[in-house]
Amino acid sequence: MQETANGKIHKLEVTDDTLTSRGGLAFFVKYLQAIGIVGLLLHKFAGIKKSIKGVSVRNLFLQALYFFFDGTSRHLSYFDEL
C-alpha cells in the first residue's frame, strides 16, 4: 500500500505483513468520512447536547459505528458490560 504526502490511498495491494484484527478499521473510517454519515446523524439528532465532561456527540456516533463494524458485538447492551 502506497501513501502520498497528502495521505490519500490510491491502491491496495497484497502484503505478507501481519495486520491486527482491527487493521481494516482505517479503511472503514475513510469510508464513513467519504459518505458523510456522521453529518447526517448529527443533523438527525441535533437535539442531543454534548456533555462538558463526556465525549462529543460526533465521537459517540463514531465509536458506536466502529464498535459494530469491529464485530465484537452488534448489541448496544454490550456497552453495559464494558
List the helices and strands and how they pair.
Layout lengths: L24 H11 L1 H8 L12 H14 L7 H4 L1
Characteristic key phrases:
mainly alpha; 45% helix
Describe this structure in words.
- The protein has a domain at 25-81.
- The protein has helices at residues 25-35, 37-44, 57-70, 78-81.
- It is built from four helices and no strands.
- The termini are far apart.
- With 82 residues, it is mainly α.
- The longest helix is centred in the C-terminal third of the chain and has 14 residues, at 57-70.
Give a short summary of the structure.
This protein has 82 residues and is mostly helical.
What is the mean pLDDT? Answer: 76
N-C termini distance: 34 Å
Percent range for helical residues?
40-55%
Tell me the quaternary state: single chain
The sequence of SSEs as H and E is HHHH
Outline: globular
Summing up helix and strand content along with how strands pair, one would put the structural category as mainly alpha
Major sheet: size, sense and barrel closure? none
Care to count the β-strands?
A: 0
The Rg value, from CA coordinates, equals 16 Å
The parts where pLDDT drops under 50 for at least 5 residues are none
How many DSSP H or I helices? Answer: 4
How much beta, percentage-wise? under 5%
